[in-house]
Amino acid sequence: MPRLNGLAPVAGPHTRLLVLGSFPSVASLRAQQYYAHPQNHFWKILQALWPAFPLPEASAYEARCAWVLARGLGIWDVYASCEREGSLDSAIRNAVVNDFVALRTACPELRLIAHNGSESYKHAKHTSAFGLPVLRLPSTSPANASWSLERKRATWHDAALQAGLL
After folding, report:
1. Which long-range contacts (CB under 8 A, 24 or more apart) does 49-55 make?
2. Catalytic sites, residue numbers
3. What b/e readout covers 97-127, taking b as 16+ CB neighbours within 10 angstroms?
4. Which terminus of the chain has a lower count of CB atoms within 10 Å, N or C?
5. Structural domain boundaries of the chain?
6. Mean pLDDT in the chain?
7. What phi-psi label fits residue 91: left (phi over 0), alpha (psi between -120 and 50 degrees) or beta?
8. Strand order of the sheet with strand 134-137?
9. Domain Uracil-DNA glycosylase-like, which positions (predicted)?
């Protein structure tokens, strides 16, 4: 199985809500962009949270990252690297967890950590050590078909509200 490396965090000193996925999909690794699969609900949910601020196009990823940071949101994954064929979390093997301590230091305004899906949430013990609230959000992945887009949006809205982003 190939050894894959994840993406750098999108976070900064004004990040108040950190969203942690598990590991980038094949499409995201290929594009070197978080949530690059066109059917992932992540970007649609964020646009619904801040409708007054137009989300830049996927082709303008740097602008999307700046847009996210301007809202106080950070994006990262629990795994720095892993072995995996395909994009399913169930195929992840021999994963190495990211350095959350270093990221916490870089984000002094962090108020809330939200795990995007159950695989990410398996590592809540690492993130809860910071003494911050930790939530499990429904996965934005197209594989999570049991949750409607609206139901996901409502749950993500509550997290953004709790972090003081709305």
Report:
1. 49/153, 49/156, 49/157, 49/160, 49/165, 49/166
2. 40
3. ebebeebbeebeebbbbbbbbebbbebbebb
4. N
5. 3-162
6. 95
7. alpha
8. 73-77, 17-21, 112-116, 134-137
9. 8-160
Q: Which residue type does 44 have?
A: K
pLDDT digits (tens, 9 = 90+) for 94-135: 999 999 999 999 999 999 999 999 999 999 998 988 899 999
- Token pair listed for 87: 């994009």
Work out the widest C-alpha separation in the chain, in whole angstroms.
44
* CATH of region 3-162, choose from 3.40.50.1010, 3.40.50.300, 3.30.450.20, 3.40.470.10: 3.40.470.10
3-5 vs 112-116, strand pairing mode = unpaired
Kindly state the helix (H) or strand (E) to which residue 10 belongs, with its residue range. Answer: none
Q: What pLDDT is stored for residue 72 in this prediction?
A: 98
145 pLDDT band, cuts 50/70/90, is: confident
The identity of residue 132, as a single letter, is L
SS (H, E, C) 106-129: HCCCCCEEEEECHHHHCCHHHHHH
